[in-house]
Amino acid sequence: MLGRLCGWDARLEDIAKRMRCSKCGRKRCRLRAFPPKKRWDGGRFTTGARVSLYGWADPDRPDRDAVSFAYVLAGGFRPHKVAGFRLEWEHDVNRLVGQRYRVMALINVLGIK
Question: 40 and 65: one domain?
Answer without folding.
Answer: yes
